[in-house]
Specification:
The complex is a heterodimer of chains A (377) and B (934). Chain A is mainly beta. Helices cover 11% and strands 41% of the residues of chain A. Chain B has a 22-stranded antiparallel barrel. In chain B, strands 1-3-6-5-7 form a five-stranded mixed beta sheet. In chain B, strands 8-14-13-10-11 form a five-stranded mixed beta sheet, with no helix packed on it. Classes of the chains: A mainly beta (377), B mainly beta (934). Chains A and B meet through α1, β1, β17 and α2 of A and β52, β53, β57 and β58 of B.
Amino acid sequence: MIRSKSIYFFLALILLQQACKDKYVSPYASPTTGYLVVEGYICGNDSTSFHLTRTVKLPGDDNPPAVTGANLEIEGSDNTVYPLTEKGTGYYGASTLPLVASKQYRLHIRTPDGLEYQSAYVTYRPTPAIDSISWKENPDNTIQISASTHDPADTTRYYFWEYGETWEYHAGEQSYEVYDPSTKMVYPRADSNQIYRCWHYDSSTAILLYSTAKLSKDVVDQFPLVTLPANSAETSVEYSIHVRQYALSKDGYNYMVLMQKNTESLGSIFDAQPSALTGNITCISNTSVPVIGWVSAGTMQQQRIFINRTQVISYYTNVCPIADTTFGKSTANYVKFFEQEALVPIEDGVAGITANTSGCVDCTTQGGITQKPSYWP
Amino acid sequence: MIISPLNRPGMTSTSCFRIFLCISLLLSANSVFSQKDKVSIDVKNARPADILKAIDQQVDYRLFYDTAELDTARMDISASQQPLFEFLDHLFQGTELTWSVDRQRHVFIVKGESIVTDMPAGPAGKKNTTYGSGSSDSLRDYLNEVAKAPAATLENRLYVIGQKQTGNPQGMVTVAGYARDAKTGEPIPGASIYVENPRIGVYSDQYGYFSISLPRGRHTLNIQSVGMKDTKRQLLVYSEGKINIDLYTQVATLKKVFVSAEKASNIKRTDMGVQKLDIKTIKQVPVVFGEADILRVITTLPGVKTVGEASTGLNVRGGAPDQNLILFNDATIYNSAHFFGLFSAFNPEVVKDVELYKSSIPARFGGRLSSVLDITSREGNKKEWTGSAGIGLLTSRFNVEGPLVKDKTSIILGARTTYADWLLNELPAQYKNSKASFYDANLIVSHEINKKNSLYLTAYISQDHFNLNNDTTYGYGNKNISLKWKHIYSNKLNSVFTGGYDHYNYNIYSTDNPLTAYRLRFDIAQAYFRTQFNYYLSASHTLEFGASSLRYKLHPGSYDPHGTESLIVADTVPAEQALESAAYLSDHYTVNSSLSLDGGIRYSMYSYLGPGTVNKYAPGLPVITDNLLNTTNYKSGAFIKTNGGPEFRVSARYLLTDDLSLKAGYNTQRQYIHSLSNTTAMAPTDIWKLSDPNIKPQYGDQVSLGLYRNFKNNTIETSVEVYYKRIEHYLDYKSGAELIMNHHIETDVLETKGKAYGVELLIKKQTGKINGWFSYTWSRTMLRQDDPNAGELINGGKYYPANYDIPHSATLVGNYRFTHRVSVSLNATYATGRPITLPIGLYYYAGSYRTLYSDRNAYRIPYYFRTDFSMNVDGNHKVHQKFHGSWTFGVYNITGRRNPYSVYYVSENGQVNGYKLSIFGSAIPFVNYNIKFN
C-alpha cells in the first residue's frame, strides 16, 4: 500500500511538470503602428472625459504616448455641438453636458497630424442604478466584491464596470520625529508631515462585462468585480471601492467581449485565435487607418463602499521585520544612521533616539501617499 | 472418411479424463509438459487396433482413427516408457498411416495425407495441427510447425475446379473464394491472388473475398499477403468454382526476408496516396502513456499533420480536421478524441487495420474533401475463445472474443475505461475539483449464414466527461451501430448492403450560480443505407457500383435553465435535416501487364430539408443581420435547397520495371457538412453545420503524381508523391464570430478559397530485424477571402496560411527486434511551427496595456521536435500456456523538450506578458502490462 502510494505520488510529480507555460519573447520585431486609441464615455449625468493615446511597440514598458493638442467635439443628431477641452496630457473633457435621451451622439476628433476621426452615432442609454456593491469573505481567505443591479424594464441587458480602489494602511511603527539633513538635527514631526497613515490608489485593469441577454429578467446577481487576499495591506485598516457602471449597446458589448477574448482569456488548450478588432470610430480622412476604441453615450451610475478591518476575519497587520535601533543623540550618530543607513527616527526618548528602516516607518515607501482623500470617513 | 473415437469403457472414464484435463489446466499451464505421454506395451501377434486401444488408456491423448483403414496384419511390438509420438512413428513405419495431433490432445490417425474432397481446402479435421508424424521434436514452436504440416498437403495437391466438360476447353472462368487466417478464421483483406502465366492477379476485398478470371486449364494460384506465409494452390479449372484459402501467420523472422514482388502492392496497385497500417505496426510505435493510439500513428505518415499534442484532429494534405471521413466499420465517428485529445477513441484491441486514403479515394466513399480513414475491426476468432487485458497508468482495457457458433459466428467485445481522477486530485488546489473520465465499448459480431451470405454487426459507444477547475461540466459521446449483409450471387457478382445509425452529442452544464445555471446541448444523428456491388466482368475489368443514402438530423444547440431558480431563458436553435444520396460506378481496367487504370464517377445529391426557416439576405451586400431581407418558413419534408454534382475519381499506374512504377490520379470531392470551430485544436465543443441556402457545400479537387520504387527484393519501399489541391467554400470566421447558439451562423462565417500543394516522401521497411519508416513532407496550405461583399476581408484579401499550414515535417519510426520477445522502438518527429497571429503592437485601454492584432497567421510558433522510445518485452511464446503477458516500457518525449503548443499574450495586472504553452514539459515515462488468454 505504501509502495503504491509512493508510485502515485511519483506519477503525480511527473504530471505536475506537464502542461506548463514559459515566458515567451517574440523573435519578430513589431512594426511601427502609432494608431489612435480613443477611450471615454459621452456622459449625460457627470463629466465627460476622453483619453487619446497611440499604439506602441511591444513590450510596452512606458506610459502610452498621449495625443495632445487635438480638437474634440461631441456632436448630437439634433446638430448640437459640445467641444471638449484638454484637461491634462491627452485627456479631454467637459462638465456635465445637457444631453437628451432621445437623441444620438457621436465624437469628432481632429488630431494635430491633420487626420480627422469620427465615431458612429450612438444611442444615449440610461444606466440603471447599482443595487448594491457587496462583499463576502471566502473560506480560502479571500474577499470577493460583487456588483448587483437590475433593470425593471428588462432593456439594458449589457453592462460594463470600472472601479477605483483606495485603501488606508499604516506603517509598522509611527514616527514622531523628523531628521533634517540641512541642520543635522531631529525635530518633532508635524501632523502635516506624518508618514504613518497612507492611502493607496489602484484601478481596474480587467475588462468587467456581463450580459443578461440570455436571462428571463434583466438581473445581474453578484457579478464578481475583484477578489482581494484578506490578509493583505488592502484590508489592514480600511478599504474602499468606487464602482462605476455603464450600459452598453449590443455592438459595444461585443466589441469589449472580443477585446477581452483577445487580451485576457487566452492560454487554454481550446482558445479561439485572436482576431482583428473593429470599433465604431473611423478615420474619415483615410479609412484604411485603424482606430482603437468604442464610443458610448448615456448615464453613469456609481457607488462607493468601505470595508473596515474589524469586519474582516483574517486581517493583516504591518509589523517591522527588524527591531528598532536606539542610539545616543549626536551629530555623528545622526549622519551615520539617518544619512548613511537611511533610517527614520521614531521617538526621542531618555535612552536616546529610536529609529528603524524607512520601509518600516515610512508608509510612502509602499506605494501610497499621505494625503487623506476627501471621501475618507 | 469416418473418424470415430475409440470405444471407451463407459462414460465415466471420459468425464474423469475431462475433469482431470480441466484441473490440470487450472493448476498450471506448464503442467502440459508433465502429462502422461509415455507408453509401455509388450504384445505379440496383435492387431494395430488392439495396440492403439491399449495405448490410448495409458496416455492423456485421445486417439481417433478409422478401423477400416488400419492394417489387419498382426504384429509384435514392445515398448517401455517410450514417448507416444515416437511410438506411433515406430508403429506406422512402412505403412501409409500418418498421425497428427491438435492442441486438445486429439491424435488423428489417417491413411496417407488427409484427403479433402470438398472445399474449403483448409486441413479439415486437422485444424490447429500442432505435431505430426515426421516431427521428431515434439515441443517445437507451434507457429513454425503449422505452416510446415500443410505445406506438403495443400500446395502440391491438385484441386479440380468445376465439372470436366467435353466441349471447348477454351475461354475464361471465374474462381472465387475467401482468404482467411487459418488460426482464427478471420478474413485476410488485401491478399494478392495471382497466376504467373498469363499474368492475372486480383486482391481480396475487406471481407477476404476474391474473384479471379482464369483460362480453363492447369494453373498455379499464388496467394501472398503481408505478414502471412506465401502459399500456392495447384488448380485444374474446368468451370466456375470456389476455393477458400487458409493462410498462416508468418512468424516474425529475424533472418533476412525476401518479399516477393506481388506482396509489394505499393508498386502494383493502381491507387495512390493510400497507406495501410495493421495493428501490430501501430502497437510498436511508442505513444504517450503507452496506449497504442491509431490516430497518433497515422500522423507519422507523410502528408498527415496535427496542430498539437492535445489534438487528434488530422490535417491530411492541407485539409481541415472536419474534411476527414473517419469510418469505423462503416460507422462515421464524429469525435475521435478522448480526454482532451490525449487519446484516440479507438480501442487498439479490436482494430485490425487502418487504411488512409488521401489521394485516390475510391468512388464508394464520399462526403469529405481531404481523406478517408477507414478503420476495420477484427472479426473475432471463429475457432476458439481468447481474450486480452491491459493495464496502463491512466487506462485499462479488456477484450474477449470467440466463436458463438464454431466456424460460423464470432463475437468480439472490447471495452476501455480510464481512472485518471486520482491524477487530477494530485494537482494543485485550483484543479482539486477536476474530474475527467472516459470509456468506450465495442461489440462486433460476424455471422456466416451460409456460403453465400454473411452478416456483420458493429456497435460502438464512447463517452467522455470532464470538468477542469471550474464548475462547468462537459460531456460528449459517440454511439454507432451498423449492420452489413454480404451476399454472393455468383463468382462474378457479389454485393454488400449496409445500414446503420450514427450519433454524436455533447452537453455542457454549470450549476455555479443557481440564477444562471444552464445546460447546453448539441447532437447530430445520421441514418444511412448503402449498397455496393462488385462485378468481376473479365480478367481485365472489375466493376464496382452502388448507391447510398444518408439522412442527417442535427440539433445545433439548445440552451436551457438548469434547476428551478435559474433565470436562463430556454433557447433552441431549430433542428436541421438533410438527405445526402450518391450513386457511383468504377472500373478497374487492366490494360496490359504494365498499365492499369481506375476510373470512377460518383454523383452526389444533397437536399436541405424542412421544417426550417431560411434567412434571405440582400444580394451583393455583406451577409449581416442588417441586410436581412426576409425569412421563409418551410414545412416538414420540404426540399429547401438541392445541390449536387459529379465527382471524378481517376487513377492510372504504369509499371516501368518490376520494382518501379509511376502513378497519376485526379479526384474531386464534395462535402455537405462543416464543423464550426474557431479554436486551433478540435475542441469538444465544436459543432457541425449542414449546408443550407446560405452556406454552400465545400468542393475540392486534387491532382497527384507518384513514383514508387522498391529495393532489396522489395523489402524497402520508397515513394515520392506530389499533389496540388483546390478547395472552395471552406469556412473561416469573422473576427469575434459567435458559433454556439447562433441562430444565423451565416453572418459569422466567411467562405474562403484554398489551395494546398506538397511533396511527400516515404521510405519504408516492413520486415526484418530493423523495420519502420521515414517520412518527409513539404507542403503548404493557403486560404483566401477576397470577396469585399462578404463583410470582412481577411488579410486584405491576400492568401494567408491556414492554421495547420506546416511546411516541413519529418518522422522516423523505427523498430529493432533483438529476439522474438524483445524489441525496441524509436520515434522521432520534427515539424515547422504552425502559423499564429501575434500582436503587432500594444494599446492602453480599460486600465491595461492590451495586444493589437492585425493579419491572421502572419507568424509561426517555434518548431516542434520530439523523440519517444519504448521497449516491448513479451512473455514466453509457449503455445499451450493459457496466459501470455507482455510489458511495454517507454519514455515519451525523451529529450524533455518543451514543445510549444501555442504562444499567446495576455494582459495581467495592467501588463502584457507573452507565454509559450507546452502540453508536455518533460520526458514522460510509461508502463503498460498486457495479458492475452485463451
